[in-house]
Sequence to fold (173 residues):
Amino acid sequence: MRRSFVLFLLVVVLLFAFRGTDDIQDGTTIVQVGDKAPDFTAFTVEGKKVKLSHYQGKVVLINFFATWCGPCLRELPEIENSMWRPYHEKGLVVLAVAREEDREKLQPFLRKVSLSFEVIPDPDREIYSLYAKQYIPRNFLVGRDGRVLYSNIGYTREGFRELVEHIQEALTD
Fold:
């Protein structure tokens, strides 16, 4: 009996680990595709004031991450190289929100990881809790009209390619 229960738990864990990124959004995602993205005001690690609504008319990628999260650490350089660099001059804004991370912890991290988009500390989950209850990395693509065009959870090559496709489409609209 105990062995079959352990096997059952292992199967459940593996299903959650490898299933599609959109499958686990039920119950954990507060903001759905089509919803107006909740506005927030925050300060970047460098002290720049950022307000989401000030980017009205631009395409905004909001990425939630943490410095201890392995998939996040794989995704951030991909965002830099496959999204930010090729598309920021076409109107893409990237706001990386560091869930449960403060400025003091982020500064040494950012000296090691070369990111040229905005990084926002969110030590108390004030921004994160507007969008979701759990799971990172997590992305919300906000269209020029301020509505969420696409969202995903986790980092997979397939999910990342899909996000890039949505960014390309949003920038051509």
